[in-house]
Amino acid sequence: MTPTMLRKLWSLVEATQASLLVNLDDADLAQLLLKRLQTESNINCTEKDLLHEYIQTRLSLIRDVAEARITSNTST
Prior knowledge:
Blueprint: H1 3-15, H2 18-23, H3 26-40, H4 45-57, H5 59-75
Helix pairs in contact: 3-4
């Protein structure tokens, strides 16, 4: 997986509504991110598989980032 693809994924995480990231179950969250990446980027099957695996291993981090955004928005 390229650094560009990783940047796109994490930019997508930041651009996606935090409450959506927190409330989806694991499978739906991974699917949402993959579908949006496919829409924005021309990824092949190999990249899709790599991204799916990467997302699966980072779901807790993705949710932590989203929860931090929610917390910072409510405290301001």
